[in-house]
Amino acid sequence: MAHKRVVERSSQDKQQRVFLSERSLGEVDIYRYRRQYGVNLGSWFVLERWITDKPFREASPPASSDFDVATGNRPKEILENHWDTWITDGDWKWFVDHGINSVRLPIGYYHLYALDPAIVNGTSFNNVGWVFGGAWSRIWAAIEKAHSYGIGVLIGTSVLNRPLDLHAAPGKQNADAHSGVNGPITFYEKCNLEHTTKVLNVLAKQIANVPNVVGLELVNEPQNNRILGNWYEKTMNSLRNNIGMDLPLYISDCWDTYPYAKLIENRDDFVVLDHHLYRCYTSDDMKQSGEQLAASLPPKALIDGFGITKGNLVVAEFSAALNPSSLRSSEPPEQDRQRRVFARAELECFQASTAGFWFWTYKKDNGWDAGWSLRDTVRAEIMPNYFGIRPEEREQSQEANDERASQEAKLALAVHRDYWSQRGGKTSENWRFEQGFIQGWKDAFLFFKFRSNSNGDSINAVSELGFVGQWLKNRTAEHVLGKGGSPNVWEFEHGFRQGLDKAKTYFVQG
């Protein structure tokens, strides 16, 4: 839905509020609303030399960014060879085998050159855009390949379900080489902000209706600035007017969670706040051991952000990396134990305080790294061997499922009535609670039973509703539309959440 303070309520808004009943639910809903267990495909398109230095061997000095590669020797040949070999079918199979249902795909605006060569006009890549002419076809192929495995892409300029996000924005949004170029930060110049909005609209038109694109991240880790919130608002409204309301939009909190969480709180459309969590850089982090850092989770940023955004919060980057000062031992087994304690605390924290996460990064080819490479962390048993609900064949007939739902609803309703009667509360419309419970139960199984029918390798993948608040907002609007408004609509919401939880317990335990 459009921003309620900017765009007047309309028939389009009403249609969005009841979309769950207006159209058949399908795979696009599963991909975008499910809990995301993900990994970043770092250095596939937006290059980072610490992950892989092979593409930089003929780059121009200082040989640390995409621009340096593009202005070096044989850039098109080198880049296209890297794009074609960095992620293979074996990697996609690895994701499925380890419960990864989403990838975050960082890309730069210059990777969209084939869509519109004017994208690089007036930018650092003006004279080298042609080098990236083969990027978009490969990005598109990656999205299709992910779909064949039941995997979503978040695009993050850099993002696709994998998240798709704009990692490298016109004008350089932060001081790191992964913004595409070296040099000063110029993203906040008016011309670059406007150009980034135009680029995002070009990209959004291509991906808005792709089922397994779980979202578009506007820009990756921009330097915090007082005008960023206003740019977020204007750009999201522009995108909504251009592509409609269905595609989730992700925004970075710049490690300043509260104001951007409030921005999301004041919107009705599907907007997600992205917080990146690392504990290996600051002086405070370096003073603490792995156990101490684990004990400090979840941070206040996640607790507050989850509540303010009503659950529309993710951690799109985190790792198992600790500063050498935190490890306090030169022995590898002890170092891995420290990382393991910290990493497992992260996962527990994310399960309770977010709707999903993406590990940074999938792999490196510059040696073993049990802090930053997911493949290495899994081999070292720092990260678990499987994420999410393990797929198991369960014989649960629809009749048995419905009967169990009815039984659990009656038990929950009795507890609900007793709880409020003892506290003098009014629950004169208990039927709303029971209806919510049944709906929550059914929706839980809608996700559990979803199966990608594109590739046999993904047939047993189990999805779980993750963006509960956003989903429930739509279900509540649907309930009110059909049953009328009432001060007791909260009973439907309470029932829904309890039904959702009970269904998961029943499904997991069998």
UniProtKB/TrEMBL annotation:
The keyword Transferase is annotated on this UniProt entry: no
Homology family: Belongs to the glycosyl hydrolase 5 (cellulase A) family.
Recorded GO CC terms: cell surface; extracellular region
Lineage: Eukaryota, Fungi, Dikarya, Basidiomycota, Agaricomycotina
SUPFAM superfamilies attached to this UniProt entry: (Trans)glycosidases (SSF51445)
Record GO terms (molecular function): glucan endo-1,6-beta-glucosidase activity
Name of the protein: Glycoside hydrolase family 5 domain-containing protein
Entry keywords, A to Z: Glycosidase, Hydrolase
GO biological process, one term: glucan catabolic process
